[in-house]
Design goal:
The structure holds two protein chains of two kinds. Chain A is an alpha/beta fold. Chain A contains 21 helices and 22 strands. Chain B contains four helices and eight strands. Chain B folds into two domains: about 1-80, Alpha-Beta Plaits (2-Layer Sandwich); about 80-155, ACT-like. Chain A, domain 2 (Alpha-Beta Plaits, 2-Layer Sandwich), CATH 3.30.70.1150. In chain B, a hairpin with a 5-residue loop joins β2 (about 30-35) and β3 (about 45-50). The mean pLDDT of chain B is about 95. Chain B is an alpha+beta fold. The longest helix of chain B has 13 residues, at about 55-65. Classes of the chains: A alpha/beta, B alpha+beta. The interface of A and B includes residues 130, 131 and 189 of A. The complex binds thiamine diphosphate and magnesium ion. Magnesium ion (MG) binds near residues 403, 455 and 486 of chain A. Chain B: Catalyzes the conversion of 2 pyruvate molecules into acetolactate in the first common step of the biosynthetic pathway of the branched-amino acids such as leucine, isoleucine, and valine. Chain B: This is Acetolactate synthase small subunit. Chain B: Its EC number is 2.2.1.6.
Chain lengths: ~575, ~160
């Protein structure tokens, strides 16, 4: 019993919070102080293992933590005060929840005895966050803090990941009250045991279906990225010669430059991806959830397809589209088991059928392979993204805001690696881009980190330019400035006879001066020939934040665009063409 | 179709709110809900009556399973089961009505558990259908108050929902 003779450390609740994070291996904590968390901030000040990043608005703290998680696969951690601090974090928690991103959010709370009294800066954060997080807990006894934090990380990072909120009343962190500290090495919960391996019988069935299919397609989503299974997915696709499409969340899980990649699918998916899906006789869905932005009208969805659906979350299976062969499990071990089975199998693919299928797909590719008017006198956003891709060799972390610019980035950057495309897919949170880029840059200081944004979105968290200065975050901001809430305007063009109700951004700031006011470099680009020199200059300034305010064609629309109420393959292809 | 779902839930604060919130958030129906601690103080047992088509019920059970505090659950409709509900009915009972109400309560094996000069309070246990039928049978008697417990259910035979 030598281990027990070792003297137990006595720590205050506040010190335990920070110590537990350190023991969990947390390097950065993103947050903002306030009354309810001052004990914790004081404990933070007295150590050096966990570093704190002071944002300018709590929403940014959550997006920074979220983006770190998207890039690294590990939970990001946030610390905010009670009341307004906590409510400011709500958008970021919901953003992470919708995209299944692991995050641990510590919110301060008023003293236990004041809870329920409408005390100063009291909000029911457990109640507010309940529908937008994977789980939440409150601390009732300081000595429980290490176990609660361990549990939060376990829940956030296992199964289908998601944000976990811990509400900490101020009296749980009083510096003078100390308790024995012990950080558990693991947690076991009788009520939460996520499945790991898939059902072998189902996996066998899936393989037989794949080997007999004549028109198969692999449809892969964000689950492949969060499940760290890109290599296995790529191998499986190549062994079976499958055409591969990615969801908005899945971009990068299969290399975009490979000939088997047919683009993103769904609302703004490629012509060939949506056609291939619609005509497929077998869909292998991996870590994707048949979201309404993918399926279009579910009643007309892929009429001939047998559906194999691999997902860690049983509730995602047969939720909107019925799966014929459901496989519940982590994508990685399931894909590995599939690869092993394929190696043993004598039976080969129907190569004649596959040849025909690929011929058909190539015809679709030829019809509409990402066209835009490259001869136009005004700068086209698609062109800008292509040039950004070129100058970063397709290797940058691209953190996007929400709008047309997001879709152009998704369509034209060409992601060859997982965890590099970082965007708010499920919630579509304008204001995500800049803090996300900051979270990535802080953790990957040597990488090129780009924030693709619009003049609308960037103003939702523009105050973070100040945080960038404080921490020397050399993010490159590509502001695709069209002077409009472009995505809104596009819908108004298409559905409201171009009545631009509040989609015009009047009185825009001078972004170049604004960047300079915050101590950064600003460059304005108004002519096509200015673009490359500006990009070269921006990326040569390694450690500096450069704000590129790029004035683009305000009339551009995102195409293809699925026709509402139609099947997957019913699309507008340009302002004048449709399927 | 009507389904009775039994749930074993960690007896922790917030767990019930989370479960009820799920139904509101996702637009599922709750027809009745009963909840109380079990012989194991760390667990609550909950019986939930809901309705929906097969797909909706499948989603409900899957979404319930996802809640961290849900330890185990079963859809009682999957096998033979028993269900009981308790009802207390206060009716106006004067003159000829007094006999009428008593006769009716006897037929339904109810008990009169409180009496005043002008009222009876009847206690009745049975399936929800039986309780509905009793209310109908009282037609003509002014009902002053009805309180129902919601359904409790259990599987028949050796099948159990336990740890
Ligand atoms: C917080 C928030 N509010 C509103 C919306 C609705 N919305 C979606 S795209 C968009 C316009 C975005 O404009 P901008 O950032 O300039 O991008 P653009 O579409 O012009 O490229 C709006 C208002 C949203 N997604 N998020
Ligand atoms: Mg815009």
């Amino acid at each position: 019993m030598t281990s027990q003779t070792k003297q137990t450390e006595m720590l205050s609740g506040a010190a335990m919070v920070i110590r537990a994070l350190a023991d969990e291996g947390v390097e950065y904590l993103y947050g903002y102080p306030g009354g309810a968390v001052l004990h914790i901030y004081d404990a933070l000040f007295q150590q050096s293992k966990v570093k704190h990043v002071l944002v300018r608005h709590e929403q940014a703290a959550t997006h920074m933590a979220d983006a770190y998680a998207r890039a690294s696969g590990k939970a990001g951690v946030v610390l905010v005060t009670s009341g307004p601090g906590a409510t400011n974090a709500v958008t970021g928690i919901a953003t992470a929840y919708m995209d299944s991103i692991p995050m641990v959010v510590l919110t301060g709370q008023v003293m236990s005895h004041l809870i329920g009294d409408d005390a100063f800066q009291e909000t029911d954060m457990l109640g507010i966050s309940r529908p937008i997080c994977k789980h939440n807990m409150s601390v009732r006894r300081p000595e429980d803090i290490p176990a609660i934090i361990k549990k939060a990380f376990y829940i956030a990072q296992s199964g289908r990941p998601g944000p976990v909120v811990i509400d900490i009343p101020k009296d749980m962190t009083i510096p003078s009250q100390t308790f024995p500290y012990h950080y558990p090495s693991e947690v076991k919960l009788r009520s939460y045991q996520p499945k790991l391996k898939g059902h072998s019988g189902q996996i066998k069935k899936a393989i037989s279906a794949l080997l007999t299919a004549k028109k198969p397609i692999l449809y892969a989503g964000g689950g492949v990225i969060m499940g760290g299974a890109s290599d296995e997915l790529t191998e499986l696709a190549q062994v079976l010669n499958l055409p591969v499409t990615n969801t908005l969340m899945g971009l990068g899980c299969y290399p975009a430059s490979d000939k088997q990649f047919i683009g993103m699918l769904g609302m703004h998916g490629s012509y060939e991806a949506n056609q291939t899906m619609h005509h497929a006789d077998l869909i292998l869905a991996v870590g994707a959830r048949f979201d309404d932005r993918v399926t279009n009208n579910t009643k007309k969805f892929c009429p001939d397809a047998t559906i194999i659906h691999i997902d860690i979350d049983p509730a995602s299976i047969s939720k909107t589209i019925n799966a014929h062969i459901p496989i519940v499990g982590l994508v990685k071990p399931v894909l590995i088991e599939m690869l092993e089975l394929l190696q043993q199998k004598k039976k080969k693919l129907d190569s004649a059928a596959m040849k025909k299928w690929w011929q058909q797909i190539d015809e679709w590719r030829a019809v509409h392979g990402g066209r835009y008017d490259s001869e136009a006198p005004l700068l086209k956003p698609q062109y800008v993204i292509e040039q950004v891709s070129k100058i970063t060799k397709g290797n940058a972390f691209v953190c996007s805001d929400v709008g047309q610019h997001q879709m152009f980035a998704a369509q034209y950057y060409g992601f060859n690696k997982p965890n590099r495309w970082i965007n708010s897919g499920g919630l579509g949170t304008m204001g995500f881009g800049l803090p996300a880029a900051m979270g990535v840059k802080l953790n990957y200081p040597d990488a090129d980190v780009v924030c693709v944004t619009g003049e609308g979105s960037i103003q939702m968290n523009i105050q973070e330019l100040s945080t960038c200065k404080q921490y020397g975050l050399g993010v490159k901001i590509i502001n695709l400035n069209n002077g409009y809430l472009g995505m809104v305007k596009q819908w108004q063009d298409m559905n409201y006879e171009s009545r631009y109700a509040s989609s015009y951004m009047d009185s825009l700031p001078d972004f170049v001066k604004l960047a300079e006011a915050y101590g950064h470099v600003g460059i304005r680009v108004t002519e096509p020939e200015q673009l490359m020199p500006a990009l070269e200059r921006a990326f040569a300034l390694k450690d500096q934040l450069v704000f590129l305010d790029i004035h683009i064609d305000p009339k551009e629309h995102v195409y293809p665009m699925q026709i509402p109420g139609g099947a997957m393959n019913e699309m507008f292809l340009s302002k004048t063409e449709r399927t | 179709m009507r389904h009775i779902i039994s749930v074993l839930l960690e007896n922790e604060s917030g767990a019930l709110a989370r479960l009820v919130g799920l139904f509101a958030q996702r637009g599922y129906n709750i027809d009745s809900l009963t909840v109380a601690p079990t012989e194991d103080a760390t667990l609550s047992r909950l019986t939930l009556v809901t309705h929906g088509n097969d797909q909706v019920i499948e989603q409900i059970t899957k979404q319930l399973h996802k809640l961290i505090e849900v330890v185990k659950l079963t859809d009682l409709n999957d096998a033979p089961h028993l269900e009981r509900e308790l009802m207390l009915v206060k009716v106006k009972a004067s003159g000829a009505q007094r006999d009428e109400v008593k006769r009716c309560a006897d037929i339904f094996r109810g008990q009169i558990i409180d009496v005043t000069a002008s009222t009876y309070t009847v206690q009745l246990v049975g399936t929800s259908d039986k309780l509905d039928a009793f209310i109908q049978a009282l037609a003509g008697t002014p009902i002053l108050e009805v309180v129902r417990s919601g359904v409790s259910g259990i599987a028949r035979g050796e099948k159990t929902l336990a740890l």
